[in-house]
Specification:
This protein is an alpha+beta fold. Helices cover about 30% and strands about 15% of the residues.
Length: about 300
């Protein structure tokens, strides 16, 4: 057992570590692609006050969101009643449509909407997206504030006109739609609060607060998004983020091409039954399960959350 001085030194070291890791301020605005730290980045928000936190030097670089956009697609399809609430699709591991081949890592079998969100099933959403016109998807992306600044930081690229098939938007592969981390964070805050989050703001730039976004969806649609994100932690793509369910997380993962490799995301909120915090983690290389999920877990369990 260590001495009191050893314990005090350890406590001081831990506080300094957390202050460095989770201290507010120092976001790089408009950085080159190389500005993101090799180990990735993590941002979070207090859902009561709207205050945003991030390690010093975090880059707000926009990027392809990948499967995070399945949340927007699911909301649009269900809110517009384009498919029945209990619709299911079979996933055999791959599907060909519009001269494109889309694959999943495994054959998921027959899934409903919530299960498809949890498993991030490409095959399900490729089929479901056939009912969704690209302009309608973009209208819902705007409802989720993906065309606006977040916490005083400019938005990433957002298209004026929809192009191509709906799958490229729902799977988050459209080069003209690249949100940055705080926009993704705000999307999770909207879902956590059922469309009534506080205005997000950077404590180092108090005059840069945005107007609080508002999003009205049906209770059934909010329930669907929340259940899919909770399920992702229990048995889906984020099951390794908190296996003991200590934080009661609700999350969505996303992976997208990035040069010759991949970049990946995890975003969500907790505790799911009384949301207090939203977060977003981005890994500059690797898939969500190999990179973004371990990154988010490391940050989430490095602090004691109130």
């Amino acid at each position: 057992m260590g001495s009191k001085s050893d314990n005090a030194e350890h406590s001081t070291g831990r506080r300094q570590f957390l202050k460095s890791l989770f201290g507010l301020g120092g976001v790089i605005k408009g950085p080159p692609a190389t500005a993101m730290p090799a180990q990735g980045a993590f941002v979070w928000a207090d859902l009561k006050t709207g205050q945003v936190g991030f390690p010093t030097g975090t880059a707000m670089e926009p990027g392809l969101p990948g499967s995070l956009m399945k949340l927007v697609g699911a909301a649009a399809i269900r809110e517009e009643n384009l498919l029945p609430a209990k619709v299911t699709f079979e996933c055999s591991g791959s599907i060909q449509l519009h001269r494109q081949t889309y694959t999943c890592q495994v054959a998921h079998g027959r899934l409903d909407f919530a299960q498809a969100i949890a498993q991030s099933c490409n095959v399900f959403f490729v089929q479901a997206s056939e009912s969704l016109a690209p302009p309608l998807f973009l209208a819902y992306a705007r409802k989720f504030s993906l065309d606006r600044p977040a916490a005083g930081f400019p938005s990433g690229p957002f298209p004026d006109i929809a192009q191509g098939e709906p799958q490229r938007y729902v799977l988050g592969l459209a080069e003209e739609l690249k949100p940055q981390m705080l926009q993704i964070l705000q999307m999770s805050a909207l879902i956590a609060t059922r469309g009534r989050p506080p205005a997000l703001y950077d404590a180092q730039e108090p005059g840069a607060s945005d107007v609080a976004p508002r999003l009205d969806l049906s209770r059934a649609t909010w329930d669907l998004l929340g259940e899919g994100m909770k399920m992702a932690c229990r048995l889906g793509t984020a099951r390794q983020i908190d296996p003991e369910n200590k934080l009661r997380l609700a999350v969505k993962t996303g992976t997208a091409p990035h040069g010759k490799s991949f970049q990946s995301w995890v975003t969500g909120y907790f505790p799911w039954d009384a949301p207090r915090h939203a977060f977003c983690a981005r890994a500059p290389s690797g898939t969500s399960q190999s990179a973004a999920v371990p990154l988010a877990r490391r940050f989430l369990f490095a602090a004691e959350w109130p």
